[in-house]
Amino acid sequence: MWIRLLDDEKVCLHQLCVTRQAFKKLCDVLMEKSRLVATRYVTIKEIVALFLHILTHDLKNSTIRSIFACSSKTISRQFHVVLQVVMKIGKFYIKQNSVSFHEVDDKWKWFKGAVEALDGTLIEITVPTSEQGKYQDRKGNLSTNVLGACDANLKFTYLLPDREGLASDSRVLHDALTRRNSLKVSQNLLREVDKELEEATLENEVERDNTTFVGVIDEWSQFKDNLAMEMFEEYQA
């Protein structure tokens, strides 16, 4: 019954964050390229909808169970099945371009040497208790630092997930440039980036004073008292 509601475009967008056409195409791709198959009791549409619904609304297993009328075991199993096939098809869509995009379009000549569009973002995650320490960010939330690059057509060409939440941008970029499946850039640009990272590291090093005693300055105390009095008099006026 619930799956029939996805025939409405607005409902599909709200529940799964994709259009009806995109949802149908995703189901077809997962069947063709990853051989995702339906079970005796769960259809392909239900399996994929369950997966997208969990990602969209970050719901617990018990909540999803009441929506899809499935057991917790079925929900957990089908979610991980779709997750595995989605990871497998990533290589078909996330590819680094062999030809720089500004070489095939005249308007990009002004951006000679650019490495497409590069940015990072924090994504909240759930990890086992034993691994939570390294994924805690400055606000105490569990998150991973993800680096992404896209071309002129806004298609992703590189993704680097699974960096701890406290990892700085320079560390994430250095990891992307030095790992086996690295972000492809020209050697000249790579040398410039290395120089920038070196300078950024030096700038981030803060000299700390060894303070063992905190004294009270009369001038500072008097200044605070005078300021408080002025503010009180202005308030009364």
Automatic annotation (TrEMBL):
Domain DUF8040: 7-88
UniProt xrefs under InterPro entries: DUF8040, HARBI1-like, HARBI1_dom
Cofactor(s) listed in the protein's UniProt record: a divalent metal cation
Domain DDE Tnp4 as annotated: residue spans: 118-175
Pfam families per UniProt: DDE_Tnp_4, DUF8040
Localization in the cell: Nucleus
Nucleus recorded as keyword: yes
Coiled coil feature spans: 183-210
Keywords: Coiled coil, Hydrolase, Metal-binding, Nuclease, Nucleus
Cellular component terms per the entry's GO annotation: nucleus
GO MF term set: hydrolase activity; metal ion binding; nuclease activity
Signal peptide bounds: none
Family membership: Belongs to the HARBI1 family.
PANTHER family with a match to the protein in the record: NUCLEASE, PTHR22930
Protein name in the entry: Transposase
Species for this entry: Rubroshorea leprosula
Lineage of producing organism: Eukaryota, Viridiplantae, Streptophyta, Embryophyta, Tracheophyta
